[in-house]
Amino acid sequence: MRYFIVAFLVLTTIASRAQSSDADALKALNAAFIHGYMTRDTAKLGPIFADDFILINPSGQRRNRQEVLNGFVTSPHFLSCEVDTIEISLHGTIGLVHARAVFTTNDNGKQTTGKTDYLDVYEKRRGRWVAIAAHVIYLGGN
């Protein structure tokens, strides 16, 4: 019985550390996603997205990986983007990143500030987290 308890405690500790490591990895991917979006750096964004990545934008349009990457060329220039809140939840090989962000853009000389609420879905494939889906909701702004 004593060995069972010790084994249980060891396995629980290992699982807890793995979850913490995975949560940290997802937070880092979220930061890289936002930075790549702001800088339009498709070379850095590309590896974050799985080949079967799907985005639902605030207008309700469905975009695949290549459409999202191509869209960065014509998107407004981001002046700033700050994550307001972030929640990470892990479900086996699926990780959810739910966050709110405040952003400021410059589109042809017009500055706009707004808020979004988004849910990014990641899957751990071959030991690496990749984004498989994202849904963004626009909460309003000026």
Describe this structure in words.
The protein has helices at residues 2-39, 42-45, 65-71, and strands at 49-56, 62-64, 77-91, 94-107, 110-125, 128-141. The chain is α+β, with helices and mostly antiparallel strands. It has one domain (2-141): Nuclear Transport Factor 2, Chain: A. A six-stranded mixed sheet has the order 2-1-6-5-4-3. Residues 6-16 have low confidence and may be disordered.
CATH architecture: Roll
According to CATH, what is the class? Alpha Beta
Question: What is the total domain count?
Answer: 1
List SSEs in N-to-C order: HHEEHEEEE
Tally of individual helices: 3
Strands ordered across the widest β-sheet: 2-1-6-5-4-3
What integer value in Å does the Rg equal? 18 Å
What can be said about this structure in brief?
The protein is of the alpha+beta class.
Write the layout of secondary structure elements.
Elements lengths: L1 H38 L2 H4 L3 E8 L5 E3 H7 L5 E15 L2 E14 L2 E16 L2 E14 L1
Parallel strand pairs: 1-6
Antiparallel strand pairs: 1-2, 3-4, 4-5, 5-6
What characteristics describe this protein?
3 helices; globular; Nuclear Transport Factor 2, Chain: A; alpha+beta
